[in-house]
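Hi R.,

Here's the chain you asked about this morning:
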Amino acid sequence: MAAVAEKNTYYSTGRRKTAIARVWLIHGSKGITVNGRNPREYFGRDDLEDRLEEPFKLAKLENRFRVRVQVLGGGIAGQADAVQLGISRALVKYDETLRATFKKDKLLTRDPREKERKKFGQKGARKRFQYTKR
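And here is the predicted structure, written out as tokens:
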């Protein structure tokens, strides 16, 4: 995690599966942009958009930050979780007392689950071809 970029700006990185989100919080103004677009337009689902606002609601800091997000890789659900982790980490840099609240709700935990690779001679990662005696 990088340090404070400039005064009143807090930067952090969030990851989930193969998605990486770079998050900048600018204190003072309000709004969220994801890759230069509105979150509703970018994610297209209300539940994913709600994940972005969850850290602010827990910290009771709604409408105090302008959030700029650059996200790449993965699918939209993994990207939303990566953004949520990035926002949570940046808010902890803003106010260290939020760490306990976020830890309790598991917002600072990086979800380590990754897709398991397909093995050779098999149908998938775990699935095998059907056995026949002949």
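One quick note: The helical segments are 39-43, 46-59, 76-94, 98-104.

Cheers,
M.
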